[in-house]
């Protein structure tokens, strides 16, 4: 019999232990037994296009040309953006880009440098 607790996210009974973590194969949620509340606080994690976790103050690079509404030119692939700030919403990165000014970007179009 499985004496492990059900998944706190989807309530699946098929959890298993891997090292010090408990893992749910149905929703891929990972947690440490007894620390479910701590993981729930960090649900709004912002990840770049490669799956790296982004933090305030990080530097990122744009991975594809992006058209900018109201601008005559676009942001080119490889443009480095320093000192990002994470915000809630669809465009979850606020930053200043040289030559463009204040900008909001989606995290799926950047990679961490």
UniProtKB/TrEMBL annotation:
This is Alkylphosphonate utilization protein. Belongs to the YjdM family. Residues 46-113 form the Protein YjdM C-terminal domain. InterPro entries: YjdM, YjdM_C, YjdM_N. Residues 3-31 form the Protein YjdM N-terminal domain. It comes from the Bacteria. Transmembrane segments: none annotated.
């Amino acid at each position: 019999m499985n004496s492990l607790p059900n998944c706190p996210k989807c309530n699946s009974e098929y959890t298993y232990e891997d090292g010090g973590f408990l893992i749910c194969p149905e929703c891929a949620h990972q947690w440490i037994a007894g620390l479910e509340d701590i993981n729930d606080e960090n649900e709004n994690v912002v990840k770049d296009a490669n799956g790296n976790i982004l933090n305030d103050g990080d530097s990122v690079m744009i991975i594809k040309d992006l058209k900018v509404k109201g601008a005559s030119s676009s942001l080119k692939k490889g443009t480095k953006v320093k000192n990002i700030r994470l915000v809630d919403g669809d465009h979850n990165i606020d930053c200043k880009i040289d030559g463009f000014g204040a900008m909001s970007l989606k995290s799926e179009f950047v990679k961490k440098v």
